[in-house]
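Researcher: Next entry in the queue.
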Amino acid sequence: MSLSHAVLTSLIEKPSSGYDLARRFDKSIGYFWHATHQQIYRELARMEEAGWVESVAAPDAGNTRKRSYRVLPAGREELVRWAREPSAPMDLRDEVTVRLRADAALGSLGLDDELRRRIALHQEKLEHYRAIEARDFPAGKALGRSARIQHMILKKGMMFEEGSIAWTQEMLAVLAQA
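Model: Structure for this entry, 178 residues:
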C-alpha cells in the first residue's frame, strides 16, 4: 500500500486542507498506516501533479498559502484500481520477537521489564480504542454500512491489542519459569 491510497481515501471521506487532512489522518487511518505531516504534504503535491487531486485556496486561507484538496475522477479511478488488487497479508516484523529468540539462544537477557512496558503500551492503546468505540459506536445504535465497516476496523485494532497483551503476559510467565 502506498501513502497516496490512504490519502485518497481520507480525502474522499472529506475534502480538506493539508493541515486538516494530516490532523484527521492522525486520528483515523494513522492508527494503522502512520505518516508524518511532511510526508502527507509531499504526497499531496505528487498526487496533484499526477492529476488525482486538485487544490484551491482554502476559504479561510487569508494571506496564507493554505490549500483545500479534493479528489478528481482520475484519483477515484486509481483508488478503485488499487482497492481491487490482491494484497499480501500483514508481515509481522517485531524487534522484541528477535530479542526473545536471542534470549532463547543465549540465556536470560532480562527482557521482563521491556515486556511489561509493552503490555502497558498495548493496554493504553486498547483503552483509547475502547473510548473511541464508546463514543462513535455505542451499543444499540443503528449503524449504516460505512459505520459498520469503520467499527469492524476498530475492532480489528482492539483484537490486535488484546492478543498482544495476552501473548506478552504468557511470554512473561514462560520467562519466569526458565
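Model: The chain has two domains: 3-84, 95-177.
Researcher: Noted, moving on.
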